[in-house]
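ok trying this again, last paste got cut off
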Amino acid sequence: FVNGGFEALGHIIRENGTILMRNPQIRGTDVSPELKVMSIDIETQASTGRIYSIACHGTGDAVFIEGKGESRDWIFYCRDEKDLLINFFKYLGKCDPDVIIGWNIVEFDLRTIQQRCKDLSVRFDMGRDTGSRIVQNADGTKWSVRIPGRVVMDVPLMLRANFHTFEEYSLNFVASEMLKETKEIELTGKEKIDEIDRRFNYDKLSLAKYNLKDAVLTKEIFDKAGILPNAIERSKRSGHLLDRTGGSIAAFDYLYLPRLHRKGYVAGDVSDVQSPSTPLPGGFVLEPVPGIYENVLVLDFRSLYPSIISTFKIDPLGYIVPSASPLRNPSGTLFSSDTFILPEIIDNLLEARAAAKKGNNPYLSQAIKILMNSFYGVLGAQGCRFFSAELASTITRTGQYIFKTTVSHISSSTPYKVIYGDTDSLFVLLGPGKELQADQIGKALSTEITTWLSEHLKSTFNVNSILKLEYQDHFRHFLMPAVRGAAHGSKKHYCGSILDESGFSLVFKGMESARSDWTDLAKEFQQELITRVFSGKPLDEYINDVVLKLKSGSVDNKLIYKKRLRKRVEEYTLNIPPHVQAAKQLDSPGHLIKYLITLEGPQPLQKISSGIDYTHYIDCQIKPVADSVLELIGTSFDKITSGQQDLFGS
């Protein structure tokens, strides 16, 4: 099958530096191309869109800037903006990159370059052939790019596609997180605009250096995140173009349809898909038991849903073809034991992933993992031609059965207790005094359960199990908070401490420290509070000290809320959340809103006109965080701070 690479056999015609083959024979092959990457960045006059300069990095360094000056090996002064564009396109053609990258490159850089080319009657000559263009989609919310012969990758978009998460996606913030570097100009808003204008008018060399550094930072982030090798490996497996993000349904079709055709079948159309009459079941979640525990093991089922599909031969074709000896799964659904496609695809991918791990190829391993884990979601998506409520339900119900059966086995055959379970992970309590044996117990327990489960599924359902339980982590201490105002635990919310050769660290899931919509003060407070609880350090003095500092104004810089706008400000009509109230006070709010809660309500950082509402921060940031921990040890924020509250008269 043809995926990312192919070879062509036929007569070659060479024309103008290109190779032309008419009606060649094509077959798939494994190709790992060495692609040339160019990072570009532009600086503009914000009020008009006029391009001051264009920086290029990757195939060499070059900055094209309008104005007079002495050109050197990396900076080229141009007569005017039109001359700047023409010289940039000449340089682009000379360097001839395969991949062009940038920070918001489609929405800003390329759109601006295209518009200025139109205004100045310059051909938008970005490609290896004519026809380069940036177009807006039908609903006007996104822009797409077509540059013949080159791939364009927007680095923030590709970071998200590769599961890199950041509090904000500005170049300066991501560079500081990943590279420990920052932009040369760290100003924002009007101050940044004014500084760029000043440098263009009075210090062009410094503007060129600033422009080039942005292009350099973008390329360094691109390289460090492994975006290109990840995209290449994904393309080899899914058939996607390198710049394609998402597209799980298309990848599934690409893998499944050719194999279906070889078996003599054709697939239905998406328009034939029937909507389910009832919601599809979800993954298994064991009701958490709130508390503070010692020595908790995390055991994970490796690739749970793909392994279920392979083990029980769950398959769109296998569901409809007759079989002399069908396989029955825990949900009662029957599948063919000898005619199937998806289980074979998964088996091949699992084998390839094991080889990738052995060969130290993390990019291929990650690409295969993402692809396999998408299959369940595809079968449960109504936009997929293979959507089947029965297939999707079978997978989740089988997962629930495996989880419940495994929990029961641990409870009945070991001295340990499962205190929480979530989709593919089990949290097993060992208790005090087991820290030295924890790793040994975890490895032995996972091996024993894998063997037992294989035997159980063979005797009960006559299947050969590839399900594997793996020992993942040992939490020296583990905290499971209760739902606020309730006695039961909060699902998908916990904190555990890991103590290893590198030292002590906390792992948060779902709690305030893992969420971007809580202030830095709340996050720091939670981390220190839990650290003190785990280590047995006193709490009262620390909590009161945080409240004192908060009220004194000494931690105002940690009270900033940061939240993204999900739509245009004017589209918020019925419910106006605080960040939108703050955004409405700005002329050009941007995507990420930073604001404080003041005595007059939410106000953006750029327009603070009132004092900070410290009572709000105590009641809505500090107290909830404190009580989620303190109630587990029999006290509360109010009890600890009551004397101080009286002192301050609040």
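PB: full thing came through this time. Residues 548 and 644 are 8 Å apart (CA to CA).
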